[in-house]
Specification:
Number of helices: 11
Distance between the termini: 69 Å
Keywords: Cytochrome c-type biogenesis, Membrane, Transmembrane, Transmembrane helix
Shape: elongated
Main location: membrane
Number of strands: 28
Largest sheet: 7 strands, antiparallel
Membrane topology: Multi-pass membrane protein
Radius of gyration: 42 Å
Subcellular location: Membrane
Protein name: ResB-like domain-containing protein
Oligomer: single chain
Strand content: 25-35%
């Protein structure tokens, strides 16, 4: 055992050298530290593990004793002349490196791989390719459709058969494991890039320091010297231009546009919101479509079908929806311009909770369910036959050769005992405006408008078209990801605009009657010198007083 004394000379810690004993594996060292009349003692216990036959290392050890007054480390000047918080390095032992080094390196290796820019670009191209493939392959069809569309005997591209589509889930591309996995990998790359690159850049940008060397300031992207100027006057000019200004003695530091450094993080977060919202829409929504004749109703939960494993029904699924009336608007040419549906919503007690007339691009929203007007058809004609009825004749859609025109038809049988084939009156309609009638021989008989009550006689039978009953084509959807996607796109537009802000840093140093100015910026580098020249031209020049008896007076703002 040995007692040692150490002292502090000129605020520097003196290294303590000791010679270890070769045969001692456990030793205790007592020390006494004295500074400005204050003394404390400490004990160091050292345990040396050596292999038999090997002598312990005789390398010199350095023991650092912190200040006893508990104050922060002093401010020191760095190699480049900047002033910041100084600190002492703490050396790790060999056991620490072996025990924790691998655990610290493993996550960083993973982060380094995920934040690799070529990998992120490849992931973006993969997502774009899968989305394009999803638009090429019809989604949500029955397996028989893909058997015919992608046969094995003549597959597209020579290999892309229905087995690829159904096995990889490309019939539901945007909820398939391949697409969601690629999207998750891209999200992980964005998070890793934000953590390893963008956040450290922001931390660095937020640090500010004074440069005490004129030579260091002259090495900046832009540098100039004001021969007769004051650094305080420069600070006032910079503050007027929106800079945050800090000064310490003859040194000055100023910056502006720090929000531009935060913008890339906001862009990444926005993209993550968009991808998260899209994923939530793919695996947590309900969708359904129904065509309902005027006057009938249906239950929302009977139409909606889940799209993924996160789809959870709500209380609104028990809502009963009644089609009060269906109507259409027309152009002067007679073409359909718009169609409307008057809907009433009833709860389990039969109470009407909402009523609205919807149209294309004007949906109804209730309890998280959105009802869209998407299509229309004619379900039936109400016909009076010889003043009897009305009879409801179901209308069927007829296939036309090409085009998107619609045509519906029905048939009113006419008894004929002498003919083995049933004959009757045919009725065709393009829309709800008019009905074209043909006799039992297929000859044109006339045109009547529904609700006109104008009779027409065909083959001795008086026919009146009482009404044409339309059917409303409705799409129902619950999509919890829509607000997230909208928020992501809104944030993306905002942060993209903010990212164009230049982050500019300026340093200045009073060197006698001259001021050395230097600075740098991350954007608009070509315009930066002109902007700086404009600012520096506003700095007033120092002049001497005309009176010889008065000392030199520095005039400024």
């Amino acid at each position: 055992m040995e007692t040692l004394k150490m002292s502090l000379v000129q605020n520097q810690i003196l290294p303590l050298h000791f010679k270890p004993y070769p045969l001692i594996h456990n030793s205790r060292i007592l020390g006494v530290y004295s500074n400005k009349g204050r003394t404390f003692s400490f004990t160091l216990t050292c345990k040396l593990n050596t292999v038999k036959g090997n002598k312990p290392s005789k390398e010199k050890s350095r023991i650092s004793v912190p200040g006893s007054d508990g104050v922060a480390p002093p401010v020191v000047e760095s190699e480049e002349g900047s002033v910041g918080n100084g600190g002492r390095k703490v050396e790790e032992t060999k056991n620490d490196v072996v025990g924790f080094g691998l655990l610290k390196k493993l996550p960083r290796k993973v982060l380094g791989i995920l934040s690799n820019l070529p990998l992120a670009i490849a992931e973006m191209f993969a997502v774009a390719a899968l989305m394009a493939l999803g638009t090429f392959i019809d989604q949500g069809e029955a397996p028989d459709y893909y058997f015919q569309k992608f046969p094995e005997d003549h597959p597209p591209l020579g290999f892309f058969s229905w087995r690829w589509v159904l096995t990889l889930g490309f019939d539901h591309m945007f909820s398939s494991p391949v697409f969601l996995g690629t999207l998750a990998l891209l999200g992980a790359s964005l998070i890793a890039c934000t953590y390893t690159t963008q956040i450290p850049l922001v931390k660095v940008a937020r640090r500010w320091s004074f440069l005490q060397s004129a030579e260091t300031i002259r090495k900046q992207e832009y540098a100039d010297t004001l021969p007769r100027a004051s650094v305080k006057d420069l600070g006032v000019i910079l503050m007027g231009d929106g800079y945050e200004v800090f000064s310490k003695g003859p040194a000055l530091y100023a910056f502006k546009g720090l929000a531009g450094r935060f913008a890339p993080i906001g862009v990444h977060i926005s993209l993550l919101l968009i991808m998260s919202g899209g994923t939530l829409s793919a695996v947590g929504s309900f969708r359904g479509a129904v065509t309902v004749p005027q006057g009938l109703n249906f239950v929302a939960g009977d139409v909606l079908a889940p799209s993924g494993f996160l789809s959870t029904p709500s209380d609104a699924f028990s809502t009963e929806i009644h089609v009060n009336r269906f109507s259409m608007d027309y152009y002067d040419s007679g073409e359909v311009s718009q169609f409307h549906t008057d809907l009433s919503l009833f709860d389990l007690n039969g109470k009407e909770v909402m009523r609205k007339t919807i149209s294309v691009n004007d949906p109804l929203r209730y309890g998280g369910i959105t009802i869209y007007q998407t299509d229309w058809s004619i379900s039936a004609l109400q016909v009076l036959k010889d003043d009897e009825g009305p009879f409801n004749l179901a209308m069927a859609p007829l296939q036309l050769n090409g085009g998107d025109k619609k045509l519906f038809g029905t048939f009113l049988p006419v008894a004929d005992d002498n003919s083995p084939n049933v004959k009757g009156i045919s009725m065709l309609a393009r829309d709800l405006q008019s009905v074209i009638l043909y006799d039992k021989e297929g000859k044109f008989a006339g045109v009547r408008r529904p609700n006109s009550n104008l009779p027409i006689e065909i083959d001795g039978i008086k026919i009146v078209i009482a009404d044409a009953i339309g059917s409303s084509g409705l799409d129902l959807k619950t999509d919890p990801g829509v607000p997230v996607v909208y928020a992501g796109f809104g944030a993306l537009m905002l942060t993209t605009c903010i990212s164009y802000l230049s982050h500019t840093q300026l340093w200045a140093l009073q060197d006698g009657t001259s001021v050395v100015v230097g600075g740098k910026t991350n954007r608009a580098k070509g315009e930066f010198p002109d902007t700086m020249n404009r600012l520096l031209d506003q700095v007033p020049e120092l002049v001497e007083s005309s009176s010889p008896e008065e000392p030199n007076i520095l005039s400024g703002l």
